[in-house]
C-alpha cells in the first residue's frame, strides 16, 4: 500500500518546509519514501505542488490523477485546481485563503466566488479553515504551513511524538515555540 | 559509513561525485541542474567553482581531467549548446583523469525555453551516455561513469531529467575514495587537435564506439527484468519507475547505459516477448535505431513527442486501463510573477510606460514579458538580447533603435552579454542596453557570480566590474540608476534612447529575497483618497487588488513595503505601514 499526499499552494507560501517535515515524518516510519517537487520558474508566485509518497515500495515519485489519499491546499483556488488528483474517498484540507493570480489582478479573469462550494460539492471529506489567522494567533503568519500539518497529522496514523521530533529538528530554535503552538492549533481545528 | 538518507537526484549526484573522488567541479547554474554544484561546493575535498558560462566550465573540466584528476561539469540542457564546441573536441582528445558531463534536461519545460532532447548529444559527440532512474542510481551511476570514462578514455555524458533531478528517494551513502593524481604527460599526438592529429583521433573515436557497444552488451547497467512474455518494454531514466507502476506484469529491459545501445541484448529481448514497446520522452531515438535493425517495436504512436510522459499514459496506452478520477475543475491559471518588492519591477514599469520595443534575456526578468507589464518582445537564449537589438537596428535603421531597449541580468551579462556589447561598439550601433544588476544569479536560487564578490564556496572573491567592462569595450555612455526610483529610471532611459551611440544603463538594487533588510512593513490604502483608478496596479505587483467597492487594497501578508505603488498613485492614497 502506498500513501499519496499532495501539497499544493502558491510559490513563497512555505510549502517546501511543510513537505520536508512531512517527508521526514514518513521516513521515520521506516517505509520507502519518494518526494517530488519542481524548482525554478514556477516558484515565483506561481502554482506549486509537492508530491509525497510512502509505503513498502514506491516506484514513481509522481502521483497519478485520482489517486491522492490526501490533498493539503495552502490556497483555495489551488485546492480547486488539483481536486481531480484526489481519490473518491480522499481527504482534502483547505486553507481558506485567497490569493489573486495575476490574470485576476489585471482583470482578464475572475476569482470564482464559489470555490469552497465547488470543493464541497465534489469531495466527500473536506476540512476548511483559516490557517493564516490561526498562525497569526500563535505569533507568526509564516507558521500557517505548520497549522496545516497539525490538521493533516490527525488523518495519518503516525505518533504525535514523531511529528514533534521532526518539527523540532527542522525549525530554527527561535521559531520553535510558535511552530509547536501552530501544530497544536491545527490539530484542534480538526475537532471543530 | 553506511546509512540511508532521503536525497534529491541532484544531491545524490553530488554525493556520488564526492565518493568517486572528484577533485574539480566547474558549472554554470541552470534549472534543473543547479543543486549539483551547490552541494558539491559543500565538500572541502572538492574544488568547486561557478564559471561565467557553460563553455568555460566545460573547458575547465577538460583541463582538470587532462591535468590528471577526476572532474565534473554540470549544466542544464541548453547549457550543452553553449559548451558544445569544447565538448565535441574532448571526445577526440580523450581524457586522463575521468570526466563526467551532467546534462539536466527539462521535458515539459518547467523552467526552460525549449525541451531539446540531449540524448542526441551523446550520439553527436560520439561519447557514451548513462541515465539514472532514481537518486540511488544517480549516486551509483556517477561512480560507474568515472570507471567507464577512465577505462575507455572518453568523457561520459550523464543525462538527467527534471523528475530525476528534483525527486527525492532513499540513498545509501558511503565514504569517499580518494583517487591518485595521474601523471601529466605531454602528448601532442593526442591533445593538439590540428588536422593531422584530429584525423587520427577520429579513427580512435570510431574504434572506441565499437568497444563501448560491446561494453553496453555486458554491463549490469543494462538489465532485463523478465516477467510476463506478453509485453516487453524498453525504457530508461525515470520512465522506468512509471512503467513499474503502470505495468507490474510487463518484462522490462532497463537501459542505464543508454548509448551506444546493446543491440544483441535488445534483439534477444525482442525475441522473448510478444509485443515490444519503447517508452521514451521527446524524440524517438531508441525507437528509430531499433526499427533500423528490422525489429518490430511501438513507441511514438502511443506517446507524445511534446512534453512529459506520465504513468497514466503508459497505463492507458499499453494496459488499456484508465484510472477513474474526478473531472478537472476550471480554475484560472496562476502564472509565475516577479516577487513583491522585486527591483526589476521599476525598470519594467518604465519600459512599459514608454511603450518601447524590448529585446529580452533569460532570468527572473523574463517575467517582465507577462501582463500587465508586457515589457518584452522577444526572448531567445542566454545573452541574446544585445545581439537581437543590434540586428533589429541594422534591419530597421537607427530611428528604430531610439524606441528599443535590450535588457539583460548581471549574471547573464557575464555569461554571454559582453561579446554582444563588443559587437555593438565595433559595428557602430546606437542600441540602449539595460543591465538589470540585482547582485546575484536569482532565478536559479541565488548563486554567486563574478560580479557579487563571493565564489561558489561562499568565500570572498574579486568583483568583476560591470561598468568597467562596458567602458573597456568602448561604451562611452554608462550610467547607474536605482530602479526603485521611477523618476530617475525614466530619465535615464529617455536620455539613452536618443543618444547617437551605444549606451548602457545599469539598474542596480539587490534582489529583495537576497537582502531582506529591504523588507519593510506593508503599505496600506487610504480609502478616502483612493479613487479606484487602478494606476497602482500597472506595475504588476501581486499584492495589490481591488476591494468590494472597487478601491485598491494591499495584501498585508505579502506586501514588503517597497513603495513602488506609492510612486504610481496620482492621489497620494498609498501610505507607509508601521
What does this structure look like?
- The complex is a heterodimer of chains A (192) and B (578).
- By secondary structure, chain A is of the alpha/beta class.
- In chain A, 39% of the residues lie in helices and 23% in strands.
- Chain A has a single domain, classed as 3-Layer(aba) Sandwich (Pyruvate-ferredoxin Oxidoreductase, domain 3), CATH 3.40.920.
- Chain A is built from 8 helices and 6 strands, in the order βαβββαβααβαααα.
- The longest helix of chain A is centred in the last third of the chain and has 14 residues, at 176-189.
- Chain B is an alpha/beta fold and 578 residues long.
- In chain B, the strands form 6 sheets. A 7-stranded mixed sheet of chain B has the order 3-2-4-5-7-6-12, sandwiched between helices. A 5-stranded parallel sheet of chain B has the order 14-15-16-18-17, with helices on both faces.
- In chain B, β15 (404-409), α17 (410-426) and β16 (432-437) form a beta-alpha-beta unit.
- The longest helix of chain B is centred in the middle third of the chain and has 24 residues, at 195-218.
- The radius of gyration of chain B is 27 Å and the shape is globular.
- The mean pLDDT of chain B is 96.
- β2 (32-37) of chain A pairs antiparallel with β8 (167-173) of chain B.
Amino acid at each position: 500500500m502506498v500513501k499519496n499526499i499532495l501539497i499544493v499552494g502558491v510559490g513563497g507560501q512555505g510549502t517546501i518546509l511543510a513537505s520536508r517535515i512531512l517527508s521526514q515524518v514518513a521516513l521515520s516510519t521506516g517505509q520507502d519514501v519518494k518526494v517530488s517537487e519542481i524548482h525554478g520558474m514556477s516558484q515565483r508566485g506561481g502554482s506549486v505542488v509537492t508530491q509525497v509518497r510512502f509505503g513498502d515500495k514506491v516506484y514513481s515519485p509522481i502521483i497519478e490523477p485520482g489517486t491522492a489519499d490526501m490533498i493539503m491546499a495552502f490556497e483555495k483556488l489551488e485546492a480547486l485546481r488539483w481536486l481531480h488528483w484526489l481519490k473518491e474517498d480522499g481527504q482534502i484540507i483547505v486553507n481558506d485563503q485567497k490569493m489573486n493570480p495575476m490574470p485576476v489582478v489585471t482583470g482578464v479573469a475572475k476569482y470564482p466566488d464559489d470555490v469552497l462550494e465547488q470543493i464541497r460539492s465534489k469531495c466527500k471529506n473536506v476540512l476548511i479553515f483559516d490557517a493564516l489567522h490561526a498562525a497569526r494567533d500563535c505569533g507568526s503568519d509564516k507558521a500557517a504551513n505548520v497549522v496545516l500539518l497539525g490538521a493533516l497529522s490527525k488523518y495519518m496514523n503516525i505518533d504525535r511524538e514523531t511529528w514533534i521530533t521532526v518539527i523540532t529538528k527542522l525549525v530554527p530554535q527561535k521559531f520553535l515555540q510558535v511552530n509547536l503552538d501552530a501544530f497544536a492549533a491545527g490539530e484542534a481545528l480538526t475537532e471543530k | 559509513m553506511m546509512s540511508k538518507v532521503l536525497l534529491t537526484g541532484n544531491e545524490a549526484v553530488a554525493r556520488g561525485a564526492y565518493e568517486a573522488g572528484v577533485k574539480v567541479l566547474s558549472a554554470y547554474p541552470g534549472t534543473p541542474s543547479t543543486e549539483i554544484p551547490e552541494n558539491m561546493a559543500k565538500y572541502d575535498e572538492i574544488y568547486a567553482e561557478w564559471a561565467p558560462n557553460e563553455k568555460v566550465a566545460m573547458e575547465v573540466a577538460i583541463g582538470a581531467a587532462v591535468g590528471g584528476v577526476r572532474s565534473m561539469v554540470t549544466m542544464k540542457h541548453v547549457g550543452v549548446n553553449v559548451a558544445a564546441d569544447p565538448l565535441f573536441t574532448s571526445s577526440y582528445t580523450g581524457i586522463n583523469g575521468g570526466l563526467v558531463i551532467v546534462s539536466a534536461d527539462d521535458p515539459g519545460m518547467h523552467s526552460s525555453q525549449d525541451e531539446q532532447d540531449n540524448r542526441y548529444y551523446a550520439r553527436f559527440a560520439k561519447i557514451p551516455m548513462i541515465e539514472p532512474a532514481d537518486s540511488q542510481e544517480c549516486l551509483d551511476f556517477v561512480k560507474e561513469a568515472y570507471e567507464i570514462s577512465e577505462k575507455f578514455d572518453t568523457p561520459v555524458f550523464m543525462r538527467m531529467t527534471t523528475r530525476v533531478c528534483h525527486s527525492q528517494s532513499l540513498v545509501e551513502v558511503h565514504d569517499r575514495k580518494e583517487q591518485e593524481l595521474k601523471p601529466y604527460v605531454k602528448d601532442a599526438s593526442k591533445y593538439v587537435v590540428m588536422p593531422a592529429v584530429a584525423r587520427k583521433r577520429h579513427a580512435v573515436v570510431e574504434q572506441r564506439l565499437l568497444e563501448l557497444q560491446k561494453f553496453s552488451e555486458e554491463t549490469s547497467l543494462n538489465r532485463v527484468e523478465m516477467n510476463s512474455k506478453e509485453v516487453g518494454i524498453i525504457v530508461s531514466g525515470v520512465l522506468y519507475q512509471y512503467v513499474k507502476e503502470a505495468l507490474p506484469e510487463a518484462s522490462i529491459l532497463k537501459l542505464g547505459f543508454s548509448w551506444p545501445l546493446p543491440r544483441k541484448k535488445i534483439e534477444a529481448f525482442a525475441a522473448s516477448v510478444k509485443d515490444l514497446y519503447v517508452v521514451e520522452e521527446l524524440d524517438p531515438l531508441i525507437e528509430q535505431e531499433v526499427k533500423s535493425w528490422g525489429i518490430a517495436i511501438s513507441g511514438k504512436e502511443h506517446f507524445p513527442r511534446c512534453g512529459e510522459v506520465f504513468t497514466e499514459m503508459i497505463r492507458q496506452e499499453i494496459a488499456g486501463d484508465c484510472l477513474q478520477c474526478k473531472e478537472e475543475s476550471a480554475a484560472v491559471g496562476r502564472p509565475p510573477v516577479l516577487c513583491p518588492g522585486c527591483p526589476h519591477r521599476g525598470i519594467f514599469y518604465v519600459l512599459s510606460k514608454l511603450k518601447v520595443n524590448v529585446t529580452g534575456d533569460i532570468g527572473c526578468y523574463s517575467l517582465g514579458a507577462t501582463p500587465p507589464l508586457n515589457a518584452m518582445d522577444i526572448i531567445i537564449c542566454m545573452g541574446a538580447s544585445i545581439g537581437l537589438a543590434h540586428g533589429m537596428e541594422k534591419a530597421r535603421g537607427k530611428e528604430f533603435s531610439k524606441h528599443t531597449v535590450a535588457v539583460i541580468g548581471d549574471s547573464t551579462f557575464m555569461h554571454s552579454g559582453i561579446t554582444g556589447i563588443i559587437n555593438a561598439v565595433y559595428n557602430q550601433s546606437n542600441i540602449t542596453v539595460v543591465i538589470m544588476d540585482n547582485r546575484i544569479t536569482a532565478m536559479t536560487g541565488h548563486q554567486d557570480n563574478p560580479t557579487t564578490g563571493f565564489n561558489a564556496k561562499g568565500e570572498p572573491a574579486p568583483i568583476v566590474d560591470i561598468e568597467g567592462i562596458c567602458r573597456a569595450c568602448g561604451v562611452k555612455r554608462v550610467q547607474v540608476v536605482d530602479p526603485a526610483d521611477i523618476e530617475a529610471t525614466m530619465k535615464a532611459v529617455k536620455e539613452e534612447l536618443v543618444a547617437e551611440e551605444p549606451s548602457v544603463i545599469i539598474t542596480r538594487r539587490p534582489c529583495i529575497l537576497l537582502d531582506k533588510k529591504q523588507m519593510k512593513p506593508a503599505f496600506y490604502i487610504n480609502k478616502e483618497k483612493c479613487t479606484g483608478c487602478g494606476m497602482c496596479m500597472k506595475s504588476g505587483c501581486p499584492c495589490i487588488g481591488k476591494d468590494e467597492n472597487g478601491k485598491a487594497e494591499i495584501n498585508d501578508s505579502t506586501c514588503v513595503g517597497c513603495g513602488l505603488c506609492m510612486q504610481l498613485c496620482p492621489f497620494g492614497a498609498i501610505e507607509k505601514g508601521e
